[in-house]
Amino acid sequence: xxxxxxxxxxxxQLQDSINWLIQYVDSFVENLQCDxxxxxxxxxxxxxxxxxxxxxxxxxxxELLQLAxxxxxxxxxxxxxxxxxxxxxxLRKQEYKVDMVNSDxxxxxxxxxxxxxxxxxxxxxxxxxxxxxxxxxxxxxIMSSVIISNASYIKEINNGGLKKMSRNILALQQNLxxxxxxxxxxxxxxxxxxxxxxxKPEEILRNIVEQQKRFxxxxxxxxxxxxxxxxxxxxxxxxxxxKQLNLHLVKLNEIMENESDSSSEEKSNGxxx
Length: 273
Known about the structure:
By secondary structure, the protein is mainly α. The chain has 11 helices and no strands. Helix 3 (47-93) packs parallel to helix 5 and helix 6 (139-149) runs parallel beside helix 8. The chain is elongated.
């Protein structure tokens, strides 16, 4: 991971400079093909030398194009690595069983938002709009996936923690919307996922049946397990809770299998028609 954002800005500057050089060389090659006087100046009328010159310039053009693509791809990957890094810290090291909820998002969320907004503001001076969109579009999906898939690292969560989680997701969503100028609906999915914990497991299971599944089986498993981790009390109650957990997981498996069978049957009927 590149910790210094200035290096990323330098990558954007390098990409911009390479693109300028590519355009310059391309223009020179085009002139060389149609300017007889220029050909004679460079090669003295030697056609083989002229062809060698063209081939060499084309080779260098391809190398420059590859270097420009590499710069853009490093930026693309680094932005996503930063998202993973900061969000994993937020999920794995923050407490979500809290009584008082601060009005500000967690520090990891604030740092990520600052990194993304400042980087976008600076590199848009060097990159075309299409490249900037390429770098930042899809981040909502990445963030949502990280937030949902790492629920297992949250030890416990209560209503205060759920409000804290919603506040973090909203802060990410607002910042990303300001960057991409589109409403980041993927982050709504992450917010809805944790808000399911305001319900009891049997209500969650009933909603899957009535409203169809919105998450994968493993995501529902992690959610129900988080619910029971967060509602442990005495030793006797823990044994009963473990039994209830297993019953709910069995029921979840049945529901998901039925959903899968129904989908397969619908596809089969559609194929027959």
